[in-house]
């Protein structure tokens, strides 16, 4: 299942700023594109057909442009193709001077290289929209669950690649077992996160708490966010702001916390599940402010 990526947003990421490549002796050895990175996670570069996370940077004068988000990896080796699966998040940093922008970009790239990302040589492509797609769109209403491992990079560094790979296999097995039990539908994985939908909000909340308890046996803590909203469906593709809101709700959660938006709580007055008000929050990139609630059981 794929997310539609709007061509206006994604096309901006198809062009890289050219910078000199400097060798260890300080001499210029040519020019290169500003790099993009793919998160390795539990997957290796010779595996096809999985979703992960990509990160992209471009510097133009004294301004740095960042873009990151979920991607689908198809093929291996020279034939590998990578597609945005969700409209990537973007950020613009105006550094004031060219030197500050260079320093910012250099530091940002160094962080990616130390956070289990592999450099990407090619472009991140766009899923093209069929000419008659507008007539195929259908609306769907669901509860959207977004789960993410807390401090995953630190844990991966401490355990090492081999042990972390095994932990992640058990982690995804546990998550998918609970999704199956409560009839959740997996949409996409994002490195160490997962997005799923449920027809009933109570099922989504109960699945979130079940996942939390299950992965604690692996020594992992998660944060979970849930939102209820409408999204669009066209064939195998799904897309909509509701997915972004679910991810932003999860980002507000503390360690081991399950947070829901007011849209979820309002649908669960007869569920018997208790909530605690966590106040009104501005969700990054999302219109208006949202009241969030912590699941208490």
Give structural notes.
The protein folds into two domains: 2-120, no CATH class; 134-295, Nucleotide cyclase, GGDEF domain (Alpha-Beta Plaits), CATH 3.30.70. The chain is an alpha+beta fold. Strands 1, 10, 11, 12, 13, 14, 15, 16 and 17 form a nine-stranded mixed beta sheet that branches. Strands 4, 5, 6, 7, 8 and 9 form a six-stranded antiparallel beta sheet that branches. The chain has helices at residues 7-11, 98-113, 152-159, 161-181, 201-216, 241-252, 262-265; strands at residues 2-3, 18-22, 28-33, 36-39, 50-60, 63-74, 81-84, 89-94, 117-120, 138-149, 185-190, 193-198, 222-234, 237-239, 258-261, 275-282, 289-295. A hairpin with a 6-residue loop joins β6 (63-74) and β7 (81-84).
The amount of helix comes to 25-40%
Secondary-structure element pattern, one letter each:
EHEEEEEEEHEEHHEEHEEHEHEE
Oligomer: single chain
Structural class: alpha+beta
Quote the beta fraction.
35-45%
Mean pLDDT score, rounded? Answer: 76
CA radius of gyration is: 20 Å
Number of helices: 7
Low-confidence stretches: 1-33, 41-47
CATH architectural name of the largest domain: 2-Layer Sandwich
Biggest sheet: strands, sense, closure?
Answer: 9 strands, mixed
Instruction: Enter the CATH topology name of the largest domain.
Output: Alpha-Beta Plaits
- Overall 3D shape: globular
Q: CATH superfamily assignment of the largest domain?
A: Nucleotide cyclase, GGDEF domain
- Please tally the β strands and state the result: 17
What is the total domain count?
Answer: 2
The CATH class name of the largest domain reads: Alpha Beta
